[in-house]
Amino acid sequence: MNIETARELCLAQPKATEDMPFGDDYVCFRVMGKIFAGLPLELGNVLVLKCSPDEFDDLCERYPTISQAWHWHKKHWIQIQIDADEPTDANLKEMISNAYSLVAQKLTKAQRAELGI
C-alpha cells in the first residue's frame, strides 16, 4: 500500500475529514472532529491508527512493521510501515475501519445517529 491509497481508505469512511493540525508534514483523519488516523509524511510510508489496548500487543507481536506510534498515547495508537508485505492491504483496510469504529463508538448519541450507527 502507498500513502495515497491509505489516504483514500481513510477518507472513504463515513463523514471522514482530513486536516493538518500539526503542520504541513502530518495529515490527520477525523470523524466528527476526533482523530482516528494520521499520515506523518516526514516518516515516509507510515500510517498511524487508533487501536484498542486489547489489540495493541497482539498486533505488535504479529507484525514486525507495527509498533507503538511515536508521540501518541502508548497502547492506544499504532504505527505501521504500509509499504511492507505484512500486514497485507486487506489487513490494513480492516485496521483503518477498526480505528474509525473505535473513535465513532465514543461519540455522543446525537453524533452516532448522524453517522447512522
Task: Give your account of this protein's structure.
By secondary structure, the protein is an alpha+beta fold. The chain has four helices and six strands, in the order H-E-E-E-E-H-E-E-H-H. The chain has helices at residues 3-11, 53-62, 89-104, 109-115, and strands at residues 16-19, 26-31, 34-40, 46-50, 66-68, 77-81. Strands 1-2-3-4-6-5 form a six-stranded antiparallel β-sheet. Strand 1 and strand 2 form a beta hairpin. The N and C termini lie far apart (29 Å). The model has no long low-confidence stretch (mean pLDDT 94).
In short:
The chain has 117 residues and is an alpha+beta fold. It has helices at residues 3-11, 53-62, 89-104, 109-115, and strands at residues 16-19, 26-31, 34-40, 46-50, 66-68, 77-81. Strands 1-2-3-4-6-5 form a 6-stranded antiparallel beta sheet.
Main sheet, how many strands, which sense, barrel? 6 strands, antiparallel
Radius of gyration, Cα only, in angstroms?
Answer: 13 Å
Beta-strand segment tally? 6
First CA to last CA: what distance? 29 Å
Low-confidence stretches: none
Question: What features would you highlight for this structure?
Answer:
117 residues; six-stranded antiparallel beta sheet; globular; single chain; 36% helix; alpha+beta
